[in-house]
Amino acid sequence: MAELALNDEYFPKSPVGTGTSRAFDELAEFTKNMFLASSFALIDERPKDLRDELVDMFKECSVDNWDSYGSLPLKERAFFEAEKFISAMPSWLPIPEIVPEPSGDIGFQWDFGRDKVLVASLSGDNIVIYAAILGSTERKRNGSDVFNDTIPNEIINRVGEIQN
């Protein structure tokens, strides 16, 4: 987990000889500890973890035929767009699996079990293409949208729909 560097300018001890009490010092220490505890809860390590996963996948799949079935190497521009996609993910959105695609694109897959899947694919052209299976009633959705550093609402809404 990330570590916060806090110094005493934010949480000063009571100065000697100013007439503050032990109760003040205890309250100041309690406040500092509560702040630290709540700050750690708000730190989202997922972007770093996903970026690490993306980098590893890119290294592994940046050669011709990485899957032994004639795949193209992952596109560098798709890699950079995938980094932006990770940065744009709201912290409450479930963590997707990052998948290499034989076309050289990079996919983000949310899989919630049988018949509940959404894949968003990035090729580095500022377009996100998505396909979803929304349950056993065979409802399917697909489409494309502009990706300008913000995940389209259609994708976020569909992930929420298949998650429930």
Using the alpha-carbon principal axes, give the shape.
elongated
Helix content: 25-40%
Gyration radius over CA: 23 Å
- The order of strands across the largest sheet is 1-2-3-4-5
Total separate domains: 2
Q: What is the arithmetic mean of pLDDT?
A: 82
Q: Helices and strands: which structural class?
A: alpha+beta
Number of helices: 4
Strand tally is 5
N- to C-terminal distance: 29 Å
The biggest beta sheet is recorded as: 5 strands, antiparallel
Task: Provide the β-strand percentage band.
Answer: 15-25%
Poorly predicted runs are 1-11
Query: Can you write the helix and strand succession as a string?
Result: HHHEEEEEH
Description:
It is a single chain. The protein is an alpha+beta fold. It folds into two domains: 8-43, no CATH class; 46-163, no CATH class. 37% of the residues lie in helices and 20% in strands. The protein has four helices and five strands, in the order αααβββββα. It has helices at residues 22-42, 46-60, 76-88, 153-163; strands at residues 97-100, 106-111, 116-122, 127-134, 140-146. It has a five-stranded antiparallel beta sheet. A hairpin with a 5-residue loop joins strand 1 and strand 2 (106-111). The protein is elongated, with a radius of gyration of 23 Å.
Essential attributes:
164 residues, alpha+beta, 2 domains, five-stranded antiparallel sheet, 5 strands, 37% helix, 20% strand, elongated
Layout: helices, strands, pairs:
Elements: H1 22-42, H2 46-60, H3 76-88, E1 97-100, E2 106-111, E3 116-122, E4 127-134, E5 140-146, H4 153-163
Antiparallel strand pairs: 1-2, 2-3, 3-4, 4-5
Helix pairs in contact: 2-3
